[in-house]
Amino acid sequence: MTGFTLHLLRHGAPALTGRMLGRTDCAETAEGVAACLDQTEELDFARLVSSPLRRAAAAADAIARRGGMTVTLDPRWREIDFGDWDGLSSADVDGDALGRFWNDPDMHAPPGGERWSTLTTRIAAAIDDIHEDTLVVTHGGAMRATLAVLFGFGQAQLWAFDLPYASVLSLRIWPGTLRQAQIIGLWP
């Protein structure tokens, strides 16, 4: 059974901080791009994919230039949509509603926002389209959704992973009817 390595790189620090950034499309800082370049210098991959949001695409473009590659923008790797809360700080959102969301983001999606199951469905489809060693520049929510899809982790387990800006989560995946996967590295 032939497998492949999937490296997930969380974008670097965004220009807007302390906010719920889902569909909000803000720039990535120069320091954030540099951190992503540093984190990926030793990674081996044949394909480069990125969320189309600027805070991810900026790092992907820099990585592509360094490696003489092209970037494939794939909207399935974007962050979860926080709906009416998008772009707000958590202090600006009703605390009880926010708590219900963090505990069960499928049953308590933000008003006008995306359900957790919608995110995991699109991430599963994106993973199914990968067949070679790939680096994906993405977001914390998409990385956690990948862990849920591949390993069946619940919300409590997903929040046990520290995924700071510019962190890399590396996975070995063996596709097939009974897809198997293994976590092979996490570099914050």
TrEMBL record:
Signal peptide: none annotated. This is Histidine phosphatase family protein. One of its GO terms (molecular function) is phosphatase activity. GO terms for cellular component: cytoplasm. It comes from Sphingomonas cavernae. InterPro entries: His_Pase_superF_clade-1 (IPR013078), His_PPase_superfam (IPR029033), PGM_Phosphatase (IPR050275). It comes from the Bacteria. SUPFAM superfamilies: Phosphoglycerate mutase-like (SSF53254).
